[in-house]
Write a structure and sequence with these properties.
CATH superfamily of the largest domain in chain A: Dipeptide-binding Protein, Domain 3
CATH architecture of the largest domain in chain B: Orthogonal Bundle
Order of helices and strands of chain B: HHHHHHHHHHHHHH
Shape of chain A: globular
Number of domains of chain B: 2
Largest sheet of chain B: none
Number of strands of chain A: 19
Number of strands of chain B: 0
CATH superfamily of the largest domain in chain B: MetI-like
CATH topology of the largest domain in chain A: Dipeptide-binding Protein, domain 3
CATH class of the largest domain in chain B: Mainly Alpha
Oligomer: heterodimer
C-alpha cells in the first residue's frame, strides 16, 4: 500500500526535521556541568594492565605514569629532539660507557620525602630485576639481574652513576632514560609494600609513589582513573583533580562534550572531529604520534622476494587518496620507518601512485598477468576501509588480493608466527630514540625460526646481515649529528629495498571545550602532559 | 525410584547441573586454546622481547599438554580460584564481584519494567485482536524488537540526555559521587540506601533509568509478542468458549482462567529473557559506559584474557542453570500437573 503523496511528504518532512533537530550542527546546548577545579576526560582506558612504571607498556598506562612520576631526563613537547633535565641537573660521560647524573637539589616526592640518587638507582635496578615487558629498554645497555647492583649505584644523595656494558651513543642512553619505565619511584614507600620478591610490583600496579604533577587516587579497570594534584609538586598543577572516564563509544564522548559533562574527548571519530572543527565552542588539538601503519610483505612468499614486485606494490598504492578520503584527521602520509617528530626522521615521500610503472615492474618480474596474494587486516575501522582501498589500488596494477579479516591481535599473532603473506599492521615506537624503530624495521641478526630477537624484519623473514650491521653500528656512534645522518641514509635505502610499505603516521586528536586550555599532547604517550590543563 | 518422583527429580538435577557446568568449562577452555590469538600477547604486549614472551608462556603453563592444562584449571576452580585477569591485574573472582552487580542491577530493573509493561500489553493485544489497539501494540513491539539496541541507546542518549537534559550522561554515577559510596553489595542503588546517602541514591537511579529503559523496551517487545501468542492460543480453547457460554465476565475469563494457563510458558520466556540480560547487554553497556559483565567478557575475549573469559563464562553458565532451576520450581507452584 502506498501512502498518498501529501501524507508521505509530510512524514518525510517530519522525519527530516526530527533528524535535523537531533543531529544538526550546533543543535545541542552546551552547559558547564563538570565540577569546578576538576577536569573530566573521556578516553578508552581498557588497555591499562598496570600502573607500575616497571611494567606498564600500553598507551594509556604510560600516559598516566608520565603525569605521576618524573624521570632523570626528558624532552619538551615544543622541541622533542632536545634533551632537558627533569630530576637531573646535569649529566656527563668521560668515555660513553660510564655516565654520571647529578640530581637537582630540593626535589620531593608526593609524600614530602626528598628525591635521592638512591631512589633513582633503586628504580632502575628494580626495572632490570623485575624484567617485565619494558625492561629491555634499559637492559640493552648491558644491565642484567646479576650485575645491575654494581653497575647502577648512588655515590651520594645527589650523584648517580650508570656503568654500561660497552661504549654507547650518549643520546641513545639519555633518550632511553626518558622513557616511562625509567620513572623514579620512592624506594621506602614501594619496599614497605613489597610481597615476597615482587619489589612492590603488586602494590604499585594500582597505586603510585612518585613525584610528578599528580598522585594516583584510584584506578578502576575499564571504569575510571582519578588523579589528585601532588601537594609537593613544583610548580603546582593548575587543576586539583583529573578524572579520566572510560568511554568506549565515540558518540557518547561527543554527547558528553557537547553537554559540558566532559571537558576533553580523546577518541572521537574522524567525521565527528571534522564537524567540530568549525564550532567555536570547541578546540581541536592534533598531534603527530610516533606510530606508523604499514604493510609487511613476507619474504617467505617467492613472488614477494622479487624487488620488482615489492616496488610495484609500493607504486600501486594511492597514499594521498587513502589519507584524504579515509583518515584525513587521524593519519598523515609518511613513508619512512622513523615517524616525524623523532630525531633523524626522514620526511621524503618517494612513492606516488604510478600504476603503469607498477605494471611494467610486474612484467619484468615475470608476472605479466599479475598475481594473487593474501592480505591479513584488522576488521575494525579505519584499517578495514584502508584494506579495501589497497585491494582496489593493487587490482589496478594486476595484483589480486584475497582479503582475510581478523581481530587485531589475531593479525599480530599471525605475523609473529610468520604465517602471513601481506599484512596491515601498526607499530608504535617503544622509546624516544631512532634505534627503537631502526632495530624493529632494519635489524634481523638471526632469521631462523628459533631466533631470540624477533624484530619486525624477522617477522617479514627479511634476511639482511649487512643492513643489520649498519643499524647496530649507529647505536654506538657517539657524534649526535653523524648518528642522525646515518639514520637518514638507512631510511632512504630502506624505503627502496625493504619488504615494508610504510604508508601513514598516526595523528592523535583531542577535542576540548573552548574554556579548557593547557593540555599538551606529546609524540609519545608518556609525553602527554596534564600539569598545565585548566578550565576557565 | 519410581515411587519417589521428587527424589528422582532431585537426583536428575544433581547430576545434570555438574555435567552442564563441566561441559561449559571444557568447551570454553578448548575454544580459548584454539582461538587464533596468542594469549601471551595480552600479558606482555606485541613489543616484548622473546625471553619475556617465553617466560609468560611458561607462567601460563602453555608448554604443558592440553589435558594437563585443563586438569590444572579444574583444580584451580575447585579451590575457588579463577586465576588473575591480565587486563585488570585483579583476581577474576574480584572482577566478577565488581562487574556482575552492575549488570545485575541493570538487568533486574529492566526485566521488572519489561514484565510489568510487556505482559499486560500482550494480554490486551490478544483480547482486542484485530483492533487498532492490537495493531498499535504489534507495531510498538515490532519497533522494539527490530531496532538494533545500540540505535535505541543512541537515540535515547540524544533525546533524553543531550536534547532535553532530563537524564544524566553515560556512566554509573556522576563525577561528584564517584567513589563516594562504600561498596558493600556492588549494587550501587542498594549500597547508597545502606549508607543512607540519598543524593547518591538518586544520582544512581538517574544513571540507571536510561540504560534500563532501553533494555526494558527491547525485552518487553519480545515478552509482549510471546504473551499475545500464548493468550491467543488459550482464548481459542474450548473451555474458554464454555466459560463464555456460561456467562463469566471477560476479565474473569482472561485473568482467572486463560492467564493462569499461560503462566508456565510465560515463566520460561521471562527466565530466558532475564538470563540473556544478566549475561550482559554488551552494546547497551558500551553506549552507556556501564561497567558490566558483558563488556568485561567481550573486552577479555578480544584481548585473549582467557582466565577472565573462562571465569565470566562460568558465571553466565551458572546464571542459566540457576534460572532454569528457578523456572522449574515455579512450574511446580503454577501447574498442579507438574507436582
Amino acid at each position: 500500500m502506498s501512502l498518498p503523496t501529501t501524507r508521505r511528504s509530510a512524514l518525510l518532512a517530519g522525519s527530516a526535521a526530527f533528524a535535523g533537530a537531533m543531529f544538526g550542527p550546533g543543535s545541542l546546548p552546551a552547559a558547564a556541568q563538570s565540577p569546578a577545579g576538576v577536569i573530566v576526560m573521556a578516553k578508552q582506558i581498557d588497555d591499562i594492565t598496570s600502573l607500575d612504571p616497571a611494567e606498564a607498556f600500553e598507551y594509556t598506562g604510560t600516559e598516566i605514569i608520565g603525569n605521576v612520576y618524573r624521570k632523570l631526563v626528558t624532552t619538551p613537547n615544543s622541541d622533542p629532539a632536545r634533551l632537558v633535565g627533569d630530576l637531573a641537573e646535569s649529566w656527563s660521560t668521560p668515555d660513553s660507557r660510564v655516565f654520571t647524573f647529578v640530581l637537582k637539589a630540593g626535589q620531593k616526592f608526593a609524600s614530602g620525602a626528598p628525591v635521592t640518587a638512591e631512589d633513582a638507582a633503586f628504580s632502575l635496578r628494580r626495572l632490570v630485576a623485575l624484567n617485565k615487558s619494558p625492561a629491555f629498554i634499559i637492559n640493552q645497555f648491558g644491565f642484567t639481574k646479576d650485575n645491575v647492583d654494581g653497575r647502577i649505584r648512588a655515590m651520594d644523595a645527589r650523584t648517580l652513576v650508570l656503568e654500561c656494558g660497552a661504549p654507547t651513543s650518549p643520546t641513545f642512553l639519555y633518550y632511553c632514560l626518558s622513557a616511562a619505565c625509567a620513572s623514579v619511584v620512592e624506594k621506602s614507600v614501594v619496599m614497605a609494600r613489597a610481597q615476597g620478591d615482587d619489589l612492590g610490583n603488586g602494590w604499585l600496579k594500582q597505586n603510585s609513589a612518585g613525584g610528578g604533577a599528580y598522585v594516583l587516587r584510584g584506578w578502576r579497570a575499564s571504569e575510571s582513573v582519578m588523579l589528585d594534584a601532588n601537594p609537593n609538586a613544583d610548580p603546582q598543577p593548575r587543576t586539583r583533580r583529573i578524572v579520566i572516564r572510560h568511554m568506549l563509544d565515540s558518540s557518547a564522548q561527543l554527547l558528553g562534550l557537547q553537554r559540558g559533562d566532559i571537558d576533553i574527548a580523546r577518541n572521537l571519530a574522524a567525521d565527528q572531529i571534522i564537524a567540530l572543527r568549525t564550532d567555536s565552542r570547541f578546540k581541536v588539538m592534533p598531534q603527530r604520534k610516533a606510530s606508523l601503519m604499514y604493510l609487511s610483505l613476507s619474504q617467505r612468499v617467492p613472488a614477494l622476494q622479487k624487488q620488482e614486485v615489492r616496488q610495484a606494490i609500493k607504486l600501486a598504492i594511492d597514499y594521498e587518496g587513502i589519507q584524504r578520503n579515509i583518515v584525513s584527521t587521524t593519519y598523515d602520509v609518511h613513508q619512512a620507518f622513523l615517524p616525524e617528530g623523532l630525531p633523524g626522521a626522514l620526511t621524503e615521500r618517494p612513492f606516488l601512485q604510478r600504476v603503469e610503472e607498477a605494471k611494467q615492474l610486474l612484467r619484468q618480474a615475470g608476472h605479466p598477468d599479475g598475481l594473487e596474494l593474501a592480505l591479513d587486516y584488522s576488521s575494525g575501522p579505519p584499517v578495514s576501509d584502508i584494506a579495501q582501498a589497497i585491494q582496489a589500488n593493487l587490482a589496478q596494477a594486476g595484483i589480486r588480493l584475497r582479503m582475510i579479516a581478523g581481530e587485531m591481535r589475531q593479525v599480530i599473532t599471525k605475523t609473529r608466527a610468520r604465517q602471513h603473506e601481506i599484512a596491515i599492521v601498526r607499530w608504535g615506537s617503544d622509546y624516544f630514540d631512532p634505534h627503537s624503530n631502526a632495530e624493529a624495521f632494519s635489524m634481523n641478526p638471526d632469521n631462523s625460526d628459533n631466533a631470540r630477537n624477533r624484530t619486525l624484519a624477522w617477522r617479514a623473514s627479511w634476511e639482511i646481515p649487512e643492513i643489520t650491521a649498519r643499524t647496530a653500528a649507529a647505536v654506538t656512534e657517539t657524534d649526535a649529528a653523524r648518528r642522525v645522518a646515518t639514520y637518514l641514509a638507512l631510511q632512504r635505502e630502506h624505503q627502496q629495498v625493504s619488504p615494508f610499505v610504510i604508508m601513514l603516521q598516526e595523528i592523535e586528536v583531542a577535542v576540548t571545550r573552548s574554556a579548557v586550555s593547557g593540555l599538551e599532547l606529546g609524540p609519545m604517550s608518556d609525553r602527554t602532559n596534564y600539569a598545565g590543563v585548566v578550565k576557565a | 525410584m519410581k515411587r519417589y518422583p521428587r527424589l528422582r527429580a532431585l537426583a536428575a538435577t544433581a547430576t545434570t547441573v555438574p555435567i552442564t557446568l563441566f561441559g561449559l568449562v571444557l568447551v570454553t577452555f578448548l575454544i580459548g586454546r584454539v582461538v587464533p590469538i596468542d594469549p601471551v600477547l595480552a600479558i606482555v604486549g606485541d613489543r616484548a622481547p622473546q625471553d619475556v614472551v617465553e617466560r609468560a608462556r611458561l607462567d601460563l603453563g602453555l608448554d604443558r599438554p592440553l589435558p594437563e592444562q585443563f586438569l590444572r584449571y579444574l583444580g584451580q576452580i575447585a579451590s575457588g580460584d579463577l586465576g588473575r585477569s591480565v587486563m585488570t591485574a585483579n583476581p577474576v573472582t574480584e572482577d566478577i564481584a565488581r562487574f556482575f552487580p552492575a549488570t545485575f542491577e541493570l538487568a533486574t530493573l529492566a526485566i521488572i519494567l519489561a514484565a510489568l509493561v510487556g505482559v499486560p500489553l500482550g494480554v490486551l493485544a490478544a483480547v482486542r485482536q484485530g483492533t487498532w489497539i492490537d495493531q498499535t501494540v504489534r507495531l510498538f513491539c515490532l519497533i522494539g524488537h527490530s531496532l538494533p539496541v545500540f540505535v535505541l541507546g543512541l537515540l535515547s542518549l540524544l533525546l533524553f540526555y543531550a536534547r532535553l537534559g532530563w537524564a544524566p550522561g553515560p556512566g554509573r554515577q556522576g563525577i561528584a559521587f564517584d567513589g563516594m559510596v562504600d561498596v558493600r553489595t556492588g549494587v550501587l542503588t542498594l549500597d547508597a540506601v545502606l549508607a543512607r546517602d540519598w543524593p547518591a541514591f538518586w544520582d544512581a537511579v538517574a544513571h540507571l533509568a536510561q540504560p534500563a529503559g532501553v533494555l526494558a523496551f527491547f525485552s518487553l517487545a519480545y515478552i509482549a509478542r510471546m504473551t499475545r501468542a500464548f493468550m491467543l492460543a488459550e482464548l481459542s480453547s474450548e473451555y474458554i468458549i464454555t466459560a463464555r457460554a456460561k456467562g463469566l465476565s471477560g476479565g474473569r475469563i482472561v485473568w482467572r482462567h486463560a492467564f493462569r494457563n499461560i503462566a508456565v510458558p510465560l515463566v520460561t520466556v521471562l527466565a530466558l529473557t532475564y538470563a540473556g540480560l544478566l549475561e550482559g547487554a554488551v552494546l547497551t553497556e558500551t553506549i552507556f559506559s556501564w561497567p558490566g559483565l558483558g563488556q568485561y567478557l567481550t573486552v577479555s575475549l578480544l584481548n585473549a584474557d582467557m582466565n577472565a573469559v573462562l571465569g565470566a563464562t562460568l558465571v553466565v553458565g551458572l546464571i542459566y542453570v540457576a534460572l532454569n532451576l528457578l523456572a522449574d520450581l515455579t512450574y511446580r507452584l503454577l501447574d498442579p500437573r507438574v507436582r
